[in-house]
Structure formats: structure tokens, C-alpha cells
Design goal:
Blueprint lengths: L1 H14 L1 H9 L1 H55 L8 H23 L2 H22 L10 H20 L4 H4 L19
Length: about 190
């Protein structure tokens, strides 16, 4: 808004002789307007510098929250993909999915302001949606719509995105989290209830 006003005033001053004469006759108004414009531009610059500093300060916190959320997404993904085997059941997978959904709701506000974390958040939301769809109606797998295939694709994209965020975490602290590319390939069997 301030930039637009400044550009409009400069263009009018250069192009319209009557405007230039008016400003010349009203020197006090000219001084007040120019001072307000300078103050506005300075405030915009300070605001942007403060916002950038805050984003940098929160970058590590956002990365750690993303890695924690990724760990839960990975556990849920593995649980859902292994349903029907001796190690997993639908109720256990639903519990993991509910934990993922709760963590997603809690972490969303902190991740939303960071551009890379927002992409990650969007991917986790899509993965969660496909997981819930698969758990809600396993019979859909036999109708040509395979939520598990979509979940596999989302998990693959999620691993790529979380790698960008994981780079923010110092190496000494990163050992607390499993590497995003160490997600084992699950069996491809359909869900059973």
C-alpha cells in the first residue's frame, strides 16, 4: 500500500504539472506526507527483518517437530501396510492412525508458517487421508480404487520433503531420529479385518 502510494505520488509529480505546483504551494503538507512515507517504508523493512529473524530462530524447532511427525507417519504407514500379517491388526493400525491425526492437529500451526514445512504438512495430511480411507473400507481395494497405492506414493514424496527439513537438525541431534530413507518396503497384501 505504501509502495503504491509512493509510486503514484512520484508519477503524478513527474507527469502532472498541477500536482507539482500544488505540492510546491503546500510545503508543510509535503513535508508531512514525505515523512510518513519514509516512516512507512522503514517500518516495512524492519517488519520484514524481524519476520526473517523469527523464521530462522524457529527453523530448528520446526524441523524437529517435522521429524517427530514423520516418525509417527512412518509407524502408521508400516502398521497399515502390514495389516493381515501376524504383526499387525486393523484395530492397532486404526490406533496408530488416530495418533498420527492427533499429532498432525497439534503440529499444524507451528509448521504452517515455514514454506518447506508447509509442503511437508500438506503431504502428511494427504497420506493420513489415504490411510484412513484404506482403514475405513478395505473392500474398496477390490473395487479398483487402491488407497494403499496412493499411500505408498505419498510416503515416497514425504521422505523427500522431510530430508530437506532434516538438514536443519545438527548431526549430533539427528541420531535421535531414523533417517527418512530407512523406511522399509512393506508387504503389498490387501487389508484384512
Amino acid at each position: 500500500m505504501i509502495a503504491v502510494a509512493l509510486v503514484a505520488l512520484v508519477v503524478c509529480d513527474l507527469a502532472v504539472g498541477g500536482v507539482r505546483e500544488w505540492w510546491d504551494r503546500h510545503s508543510f503538507t509535503t513535508d508531512v506526507v514525505s515523512s510518513l512515507l519514509v516512516l512507512g517504508v522503514a517500518a516495512l523493512i524492519v517488519d520484514e527483518v524481524v519476520a526473517l529473524r523469527q523464521r530462522k530462530q524457529r527453523a530448528l524447532s520446526v524441523a524437529v517437530q517435522s521429524l517427530i511427525l514423520f516418525e509417527q507417519a512412518r509407524r502408521t504407514y508400516e502398521q497399515v501396510m502390514n495389516v493381515g500379517e501376524e504383526s499387525a491388526s486393523v484395530p492397532e493400525a486404526r490406533d496408530e492412525a488416530m495418533n498420527l491425526a492427533n499429532m498432525l492437529l497439534i503440529a499444524s500451526p507451528a509448521l504452517f508458517d515455514d514454506p518447506e514445512a508447509r509442503v511437508f504438512l500438506h503431504q502428511v495430511q494427504r497420506l493420513t487421508g489415504w490411510i484412513f480411507l484404506a482403514l475405513a473400507s478395505p473392500e474398496r481395494l477390490r473395487q479398483g480404487v487402491d488407497p494403499l497405492e496412493r499411500a505408498r506414493a505419498e510416503m515416497s514424496g514425504l521422505r523427500e520433503t522431510v530430508r530437506l527439513l532434516a538438514r536443519r537438525v545438527p548431526a549430533a541431534d539427528a541420531v535421535s531420529f531414523s533417517a527418512p530413507d530407512q523406511v522399509p518396503a512393506p508387504s503389498t497384501g490387501p487389508l484384512s479385518t
